[in-house]
Amino acid sequence: MSLRPRVIPVLLLQNGGLVKTYRFKQPKYVGDPINAVKIFNEKEVDELLLLDISCSINQTVPDYNLILKIVSEAFMPVGYGGGIKTADQAKRIFDLGIEKIILNTALQSNPDLISNISSIYGSSSVVANIDYKKNIFGKYRVYFKSGTVKSDYNPIEWALKLQEAGAGEIILNNIDREGTYSGYDVELLLTISRKISLPVVISGGASSMKDFKKAFECGASGMAAGSLFIYKRPHNAVLISYPSADDFKSIYY
Amino acid sequence: MILIIDYNIGNLYSVYNMFKYLGINSKISSSLNDIKIADKLILPGVGHFKTGMENLVQTNLIDTLNEEVLIKKKPILGICLGMHLMTKHSDEGDYNGLGWVDATTRKFQISESLKVPHIGWNDLSYKKASLLNDNISANLRYYFVHSYHVQCNQQADVLATSMYGHEFVAAFQHENIYGVQFHPEKSHKYGIELLRNFNKI
Fold first, then answer.
1. Rounded to an integer, what distance in angstroms lies between the CA atom of residue B180 and that of residue B4?
2. Residue B102: CB atoms within 10 Å
């Protein structure tokens, strides 16, 4: 099998800049997103995820101009999420050259948005993102609006519902691990990837190639990471990096 | 000029962006005149087969495309859904296609624990030489995202195959008609080589 799972840098956008958060909080400006995309382009990354975290909180529409500037420099698949509430907005984003749109907050009140879009663009183009946390009783709960609104959904039942609604892929994003380098939440990944037939992308907590390998073994089709590819530890200086083809070989072949 | 056919389905601009980056003159249009004067055509597409065919009917493009492709033999490259539309029939929506290539589009039926859609980077095994894969690099990889795949009835049409659970047609070529399942416009330098080759045909 020559297919290896995708390793996907996540770029968080806020008011036109590239930011990095810690557990969905403390957004820190880390540079110009277009410049970052150019670097990731040179590094031949598998895919990019662009998430505009200002949209659902500020209730704004996607920044189409910024998205266009970014995709004009991106010769890899790009997914965009943030502020998409209607099929018309999704169409506008596809028309800019984005491959996949990522839905999250809008699905809480309107899961049919998935099928409204996938009936035209195909299910492979519609990704559902699940942000979740464990509460103090050890129960998983799904959050909306960039982690600010808690729901009663359990991520497992929510993933099944989104699969039924026609999503082509699920992103599982553990809020408490985001930016912490504490490793992926493989426990929930293992449960969900056994229960749903869709590809699952895991996000939140990546610290090394070993985490990618472990997530792959637990059923992930893709592994997303932000801090790992944007910062250089130990002092979190901004330095964009990505594993080389040889790095990948050492893990998967 | 390479004409990227606009039939109200996604993924037009990523192809256009790539040609622009390469300095190759291209245009997105659904005008019949543009299709007639173009040197080459691209039939892109992300989406549902039935919607794609219905849009081609609604935009009144089929007669002109048939004439340019089948009679005038203008080179055309179908990408992903565009490739599927060139076949006779698809399982997706149980619908007939343009029928330019003796092939059908099938839903992936994979018994293993592999997920559908097939999303990610995969390599190819070329089955014949053509202008599209002329002088192409070794160790290439391309980005795929699809739930359906093409089955060619004529082995001679198969340009390249790839593996996902089983072998499937990753590219075909029948005379002036080329189709690729993967996205060259999203496959870094590997896709750039292929689109440059298409420009030279």
1. 15
2. 14
Residues in chain A: 253
pLDDT tens string B107-143:
998 876 777 888 889 999 999 999 998 888 877 899 9
The two tokens of residue A195 are 């229960």
CA atoms of A5 and A213, how far apart (whole Å): 9
Query: The tokens 């590239």 sit on which residue?
Result: A18
Per the CB < 8 A criterion, the answer to whether B186 and A76 are in contact is yes
A5 touches chain B (CB under 8 A): yes
Q: What CA dihedral angle connects A139, A161, A78 and A251, to 10 degrees?
A: 60
User: Collapsing DSSP states into helix, strand and coil, what is residue A163?
Assistant: helix
Active site (catalytic) residues of A: 131
CA distance A95 to A113: 18
Mean pLDDT of B31-40: 97
Average pLDDT of span A191-217: 94
Helix axis angle for A155-164 and A186-195, nearest 10°, is 40
Residue B20 tokens, joined: 């622009």
The CATH number given to A6-252 is 3.20.20.70
Among the listed residues B48, B68, B80, B193, the single catalytic one is B80
B164 — contact with chain A (CB < 8 Å)? Answer: yes
Q: What does the alpha-carbon distance between residue B84 and residue B78 come to, in Å, rounded to a whole number?
A: 8
Domain boundaries, chain B: 2-200
Structure tokens given for B130: 């053509």
Among A residues 71-110, those touching chain B with beta carbons less than 8 Å apart: 71-72, 75-77, 91, 94-100
Do the Cβ atoms of B14 and A71 come within 8 Å?
Answer: yes
Which single residue is written with the structure tokens 């039926």? Answer: B109
Mean pLDDT, chain B, as a whole number?
93
Asked if A125 is an interface residue toward chain B (Cβ–Cβ < 8 A), one would say yes
Per CATH, the number for B2-200 is 3.40.50.880
Strands A78-81 and A48-52: parallel
